[in-house]
Design goal:
Layout lengths: L7 H15 L7 H12 L6 H10 L4 H10 L2 H4 L5 H19 L12 H15 L5 E5 H10 L2 H5 L10 H15 L2 H10 L4 H23 L3 H7 L3 H4 L4 H8 L6 H11 L4 E5 L13 E4 L6 H8 L24 H10 L2
Parallel strand pairs: 2-3
Antiparallel strand pairs: 1-2
Keywords: Membrane, Transmembrane, Transmembrane helix
Length: about 350
Amino acid sequence: MVFIRTTEACKDLVKKTICENIRLKDRLTYGQIGRVVVMILGTAGLLNELYVEIMTRFKHNIPWKKFIQQWSSAQEISQRNDSSAELNRVLSLYEALEYTYNVNWMKETDYLSPSCFVYLVERLLLLASCQKGLMFSTKSSFIEWLNYQDENSLANLSLTPVMDMTNVHKFIGRIIQELINNQNGIINWMRKSNLDVKSCLPLFVLRLVVSLCLLHLSTGKYLDSLSTLLGKSHITSQLPLEFCNVLTRRRKVTYLKVLAEALKVIDNPLVIVKLGNISSKIVCPDAVFVDLMVCRQKELILQMLFPDKVDSVDGESATVIVESSDPSRATVFLWICWTGT
């Protein structure tokens, strides 16, 4: 599934689906906006003409219209190294998510689904985690980010922060903790989104906890919050047992190694991405290292991430990978978001 999404046939299908969502006559719902945004963030090479059409249909929702305005310049930005423009796009996603989070979703006929919302939070976290030439992510989130990149954007990538991301980090930390501590609210949200609570709730809680772990890795400020959450049985009962054991086991090792081991247990390893020149050497056997200073070819990076599952990645000849029938696996998650399940 990862590799088929790089083909032109799949991109054409995405464009068609986006058009079907935005060409409805009625005012777009938050659910429709969210599904369109998820498809944008998971697809490379969308034409500016499509962005203009999307922007026109988003006119009644100013924060998301601003988001489209910032991201519609992707092709132009990808031709040059423009870190300020990249950061403006990060902030536009933050502002749109903050606005959407504060909406009374109970009164909306079609709000963002929990899976769609957490996908956007994960992307915001990834973009806001670029610190001192490094980016920390799970493998699934990194692949989604990579799928958005085209040849030009990777070649001219500039994610070295030039402004303070404290407010973004605080927002992510606050909403993660509020959501995890309000399981009744999550259950009602899932039911309103027509999701199966029994199968979706554990995955949703796991992804929120993982996001908080990554946030602590980037900021060093959320260890106490994590300890508090992992001390509550109604939360840990939703998480894989070995994952919890690794995180709560007291050992004299760095948090980086603890998190890498925990993510390896759930088969979604920690990815450490080198974005710039750094002097310190990181040793973490359970993490996957991607050096974008050495290689910025999308196909080669995918081959490195899936060494045993692809023979060649060459345009339309890409091998189709289906890792698991379990819909919780990262490689099929984007399709789940698009269908709202």
